Amino acid sequence: MTRDAREDAAALQGEEWQTMRCPACDHRLTQIIVGDITVDVCKGACGGIWFDRFELQKVDEPHESAGEILLDIERDERIKVDHDKRRHCPKCASIIMMRHFYSVKMQVEVDECPGCAGYWLDVGELTAIRKEFKSEAEKMKATEEYFSEIFDTQLGELRAKSAEQAERIRRIAWMFRFICPSYYIPGKQAWGAF
After folding, report:
1. Distant-in-sequence, close-in-space partners of 12: CB < 8 Å, separation ≥ 6
2. Strand order across the beta sheet in which 30-34 lies
3. Were 97 and a residue from 2, 67, 111, 133 both cysteine, which residue would form a disulfide, CB within 3.0 to 4.6 Å?
4. pLDDT digits (tens, 9 = 90+) for 98-152
5. d(C-alpha 23, C-alpha 97), whole Å
6. With DSSP H G I counted as helix, E B as strand and the rest as coil, what are the percentages for the chain, rounded to 5?
7. Half-sphere exposure in the Cβ direction for 21 (13 Å, CA)
8. What's the CA gap between 126 and 142, in Å, rounded?
9. pLDDT > 70: what percent of the chain?
10. Stated pTM of the model
11. Cα 177 from Cα 188, distance rounded (Å)
């Protein structure tokens, strides 16, 4: 008996059958085993893929051979997916997923559930993700460069401002050196003075 037939039989008997529906086209998702993970795919419909928490990281690089199977999911070309539509998580039906860029290159948008941390990828998104970086080290380097480019100027300004404020405090403490004993000078005691 197929999974769809089991679901239909369970529905007729009043039982609740745990099935996940595609957040893009509402088709029933089919589980497939890929390497050491089990993913849910919208086979025969829109061709999207659901990854539970941490599963996408196991197939998102080109050298991870298990991901190759997921690059060509059987789909119906007639089904058009609306990327502007807000989508519900297929696992946490009451939660709407967030659409965001997968990496700092900002080339691929994915849907992520804030509840279960699963990812929904539309057809072609996994291929694009696998082309972005060759390895995790390359991805980390790009991330560091991106944040450095954005925040280094601001952090430098904050450091300079903090150093300037620390110098003012030292000058004030120096002016009161005759009034305050030496153990009140900032930085000279473990318990702090100012």
Report:
1. none
2. 30-34, 37-41, 49-51, 119-121, 109-112, 98-101
3. 111
4. 999 887 777 889 999 999 999 999 998 998 888 887 777 777 787 777 767 767 7
5. 9
6. 35, 15, 45
7. 12
8. 19
9. 77
10. 0.64
11. 13
Closest CA to 87 of 23, 21, 145, 150: 23
CB of 165 closer than 8 Å to CB of 186: no
Distances (CA, A) of 56 to 17, 20, 101, 121, 160: 26, 18, 14, 10, 41
Q: Which residues of the chain have pLDDT under 50?
A: 1, 3, 6, 9-17, 194
C-alpha to C-alpha distance for 101 and 92, rounded to whole angstroms: 21
Vertex 192: Cα angle to 191 and 194 (nearest 5): 155
Q: How many residues appear in the chain? A: 194
Q: Residue 70: which of 81, 92, 55 has the closest Cα?
A: 55
115 touches 106 (CB < 8 A):
no
What does the pLDDT read at residue 83?
84
DSSP 26: -
* Number of neighbouring beta carbons within 10 Å of residue 150: 11
Neighbours of 129 (CB within 10 A): 23
36-43 long-range contacts (CB < 8 A, ≥24 apart) are 36/66, 37/66, 39/70, 40/90, 41/70, 41/73, 42/73, 42/75, 43/73, 43/74, 43/75
Give me the pLDDT at residue 15, please.
Answer: 40
